Amino acid sequence: MFMEFQFSLAQLTVLNTSPVEIASMAADCGYDFVSMRQIYMGLPGEPDFDLAKNSTLMRETKKVFADTGIRLLDIELARVFDGMDVKKYEPAMETAAELGGKHVISSIWTPEREYYLEKFAEICDLAKQYNLTVDLEYVPIASVKTLAGTVDVLRTVNRSNAGLMVDVHHFHRAQDDVAELAKLPAEWFHFGHLCDAPGEIPAEKDEMTRILREERSYVGEGGIDVASIMNAMPPMPYSIELPNLKKVAELGYKEHARRCLETARAYCAGRVTGRKA
């Protein structure tokens, strides 16, 4: 069965690129979408390309979108953490809506269940004003780190614009079951994160974190059964989140981004159909 795959270029794949650069690169390489970091996290060495604070860069970004036809899929990252102010995410949501984006990624970094349920619900309610979904990503080094924990949040909060964003790396590291994934409501799935990684799960958190942030593999070149995970979910766009510092040093951002797309397309063809409705 032929399936038309749609792919986005994620910010973490080409981390230190401006919105203009990542959009131009995605278009040149043949991606359908771009996924941009518009919520500044203040990490060491992280550039701040907040379009809500830079009208010139916003204008230039809009021109790239108009000239190339590239589209915005999602923005990141609306984290839930202690002492947060949800309203601080609103400018980024305004930016996403203005650029035609559809989704905001969220993840949970505090262990207090009642608190994170309340704040995630607030993020959903704020995003709904901009016709955005909020897609909860579980991460093996975060507080909500499994499929079951994420399902608990979605069912409890019960917001119409809340979704589940599965990263195949995180799914594998959590040792989750594709049979459980296949049981979940189709309307929860808006897009996913695609990459590969060594099949052996690191025992140490530091090594887990290093691979997660710096050394993921091209799809089909690692040890994850990527196809089985994708086939447990409905057909949808995939954002290729594949940071690899060695490949970037060797190839440069653009060629790395191109190889990410080429390997993903080659792997998915004939292996992935997505679960039937």
From TrEMBL:
Matching InterPro entries: IolE/XylAMocC-like (IPR050312), Xyl_isomerase-like_sf (IPR036237), Xyl_isomerase-like_TIM-brl (IPR013022)
PANTHER family: BLL3656 PROTEIN (PTHR12110:SF48), HYDROXYPYRUVATE ISOMERASE (PTHR12110)
Alphabetic keyword roster: Isomerase
Xylose isomerase-like TIM barrel domain ranges (all copies): 26-250
Protein's UniProt keywords contain Isomerase: yes
MF (Gene Ontology): isomerase activity
Protein name: Sugar phosphate isomerase/epimerase
A Pfam family assignment: AP_endonuc_2
Protein's organism: Aminivibrio pyruvatiphilus
